[in-house]
Amino acid sequence: MTYEHFNAWRLEAASARPELSVVIPAYNEARRIVPTIAAIAAHLTGRGVDFEIIVSDDGSTDGTARTARSLGLRNLRVLAPGVNRGKGAATRAGVEAASGRRVLFTDADLSTPIEHVDEMLALVDAGTPVVIGSRATAGATVNDKSRLRHLLSSVLALLTRMVLGLRISDTQCGFKLFDRDAAMSLFSQQRIRGFSFDLELLYLAQRDGLDVAEVPVDWYDAPGSKVQPVRTTLGFLRDLVRIRFVHRRTNGSTGAARRVAVVTAMPPSPTTLNEYGFHLTRHLAAHPDVEEVIAFTEDGAVAAPLGVRVASCWRFDSMLTPLRILRQARRDRPDVVVFNLHFTSFGGRRVPAAVGLFTPALLRLFGHRTLVILHNLVDTVDLESAGFGSNRLVNGLMRRIGSALTRVVLLADKVSTTMPTYVDILQDRYGATNVYLGPHGVFDELPFTSAAPVDSR
User: Fold this and answer.
1) Are residues 365 and 423 in the same domain?
2) Global confidence as pTM
3) Of 12, 14, 87, 382, which is most buried, counting CB atoms within 10 Å of its CB?
């Protein structure tokens, strides 16, 4: 680079559609933002690239935006809404403001040297819409990363593959390049505002069939990093579940369910609702739009209506019930899984019973459409009469636990309750929008047995 190249970029406006927009999300980076901008400008002007830089400030309190503006660079724009919304939100704002035909976002500490953009630009030019820096592919080097962060990264990478099915070795390196169409499409769908936003982008890219190439990079753990390993990991786990719920596409069709699984007790089981389960599966087997009904029953069930296949796959009072039902659902791949559910359906002991209530949410997390037919609510139970005594502290605790479990059950796609009062409680107290009334013993208006699509919340 010569000074003339840099001076021309500093003073003369880039084209209306430059080759590259570089987005830098920044939070309290006043000490590092100038060297970062200088390094990027020096490299790209030396390469003769027509580019712009966008610093997207995330509510910094140390004058980051003011420092960047003070440089007086013609092709540097600073976005400063004055509020802290999260790295993902700041990056999205920068991308939406970008004018370039390609869009790169990079961390403000420049942990990945800007020189790596050259190979990435060549791949985008060759037709790959998304190219990302990777610290986990052959040829990459990682410097000064703590053992704790190495361990957490490995665990999170494993969970990412298991829950989201992402075939990407490093989702979190903050150095990613997109062609314009891919950038605008993916960021328009982005919902995560925090550190996990790029995981969401890559999940969307894979879901939408976009090719993603990984380029090995040299990475340096810059002093003063804003990443707090434990806190960031907990947020990552929360966002992992959220991404799966918000952006999931179901294993089956979105219309009429041809193959229906019903999680229920069946006669001669002493477990509650066994007779209801028998009649429910019999009705579904006779439905003209249903081709197959599979009863996911507890071990030992022997009775089933004609035309209903029995898959004994869970045990009463077992902590492994959710995993065993998930395994059976992944084997049979029904279009919908219906739960004939009471708060003690999965156990007479409190902990296994509570763990079992996570099963609808777990199946939905893995892409199965779920319907819960809910026969009771903790909110309506007289705890003293139910054997919990008259201790207000204990009863208050039990009600809080019950309310939390109700919210877990409401993570199913649809919840049918058998009494109008239950519908009112779930809508008014819990804000549920996926609840409807299905009177006891009336099966004709179950969702998923018609061609009408089901909305995901």
Assistant:
1) yes
2) 0.65
3) 87
